[in-house]
Design a protein that fits this description.
The protein is 4% helix and 47% strand. It is mainly beta and 391 residues long. It has a single domain, classed as Methylamine Dehydrogenase, Chain H, CATH 2.130.10. The longest helix is centred in the first third of the chain and has 10 residues. The two termini are 23 Å apart.
């Protein structure tokens, strides 16, 4: 079942002022019949999925409401005030990263990257509605965002790579002085989409900041976070077990669960206080291009862009990962080119952007880790979608 629930036409960015957009964002009704309208919704995300178009002529965030059955209904399209971008050589994953759209729960802010404009955009979130708040400079090619407490960090994939911090207070972002740290990657390494850094993320306690370098070193860098919000001068550089460390999440005990696309596997690592990593397990999935990973319902799912499916994993109490037994580890097939994944907070649903099809595939999560298709949101082709957040 495929449903085309995107807005009939892209909002013209140049014709909307910042103040006008903020007012229109709350005043506009749903663009598609059946979209849920909520009143008196508290600040913060709720029963919603947000998709970033990454359109190079004008980036947008598409807002969908989520029903009790997991189905999505289009609500509205919001201009970021910036432009999307594409890494050289990228096919279905134009930003070649994980975490390009991020929800910061402290400020109830949705933060998007505008790679083509060298900026990030923050939106205030109220249920499934957005109001644009800020557009800020964030390096030469921002691709990934993370937060912990009042700190927000952005990964810049341009040149030699860098991270830079922002302080989030009163639901706004302020650049942190002297927070930029150079990753010292090789700017001439090719192919570009495999050699730019992949993701930035905080450790669960917020004491460390992690960056994956993909094939530009095949390392997982760990910075210490100082009390003033800045980072250690240099990271601890950890070689990944297999090449091209890309996306990661954490298990409940604070272990890293990382996709390593070079050998098509997922590895788990313990993270020590000194920034060193120790490999616990590595599991090959036998598929092509597992780069993106999400955790939902106690399961871990990796999107295999080259084989159009999603692998399912479980991680035991000792941190050892294994494929789900059903279907030799395949949780579900997808439309062409699955990339970013997002799971609902209730653990019942998984949503997969499929960059080759220009769609968002919807799934319910079964008790054995397999996924049942609920349909797809289509009509996103040509935009170069990347970045998805679910509540």
């Amino acid at each position: 079942m495929h449903r085309s629930l995107r807005a009939p036409a892209r909002v013209v960015l140049a014709s909307v002022t910042l103040a006008g957009l903020s007012a229109a964002a709350f005043a506009a009704g749903p663009a598609t019949a059946g979209a849920q309208v909520r009143s008196h919704t508290p600040n913060g995300i709720g029963d919603a999925v947000f998709v970033q178009t990454n359109d190079t002529t004008g980036n947008q965030i598409l807002a969908y409401s989520r029903s009790a059955t997991g189905a999505l209904s289009f609500v509205h399209a919001y201009n970021t005030g910036g432009r999307g971008a594409r890494e050289a050589g990228a096919v279905v994953d134009p930003l070649a990263s994980q975490g390009s759209l991020y929800y910061d729960p402290v400020g109830a802010l949705l933060i998007a990257v505008n790679g083509g404009s060298r900026t990030i955009t923050s939106f205030r979130v109220k249920g499934d509605r957005l109001s644009r708040a800020q557009v800020l400079k964030a390096g030469s090619f921002p691709v990934s965002v993370t937060s912990h407490g009042h700190l927000v960090y952005v990964l810049d994939a341009g040149s030699t790579g860098a991270v830079r911090g922002f302080d989030e207070s009163h639901r706004s972002l302020t650049p942190i002085a002297a927070s930029r740290r150079n990753l010292r990657l090789n700017p001439k390494a090719t192919p570009q989409y495999l050699t730019t850094p992949g993701q930035v993320g905080f450790s669960p306690q917020g004491a460390q900041l992690i960056v994956t370098t993909k094939a530009n070193g095949n390392d997982i860098d760990v910075f210490a976070v100082r009390a003033n919000g800045t980072l250690s001068a240099k990271p601890v550089v950890n070689a990944s077990v297999d090449p091209v460390p890309y996306g990661f999440v954490f298990d409940p005990d604070g272990r890293l669960v990382v996709t390593e696309a070079g050998d098509a596997d997922v590895s788990t690592y313990t993270l020590a206080a000194d920034g060193s990593l120790t490999n616990v397990s590595t599991v090959l999935d036998g598929q092509k291009g597992p780069c993106w990973i999400a955790s939902v319902g106690g399961w871990y799912y990796a999107a295999n862009s080259g084989s159009a499916d999603i692998s399912g994993y479980q991680v035991n109490a000792s941190g050892v990962a294994s494929l789900i037994s059903a279907g030799s580890g395949i949780a579900a097939t997808t439309d062409a080119g699955p990339i970013d994944l997002a799971g609902s907070s209730n653990g019942q649903f998984l949503y997969a952007e499929t960059g080759g099809a220009g769609a968002v595939d919807e799934f319910s999560v079964n008790g054995d880790g397999t996924l049942t298709s609920l349909g797809s949101i289509t009509g996103l082709s040509g935009t170069g979608i990347e970045g998805i957040v679910a509540s």
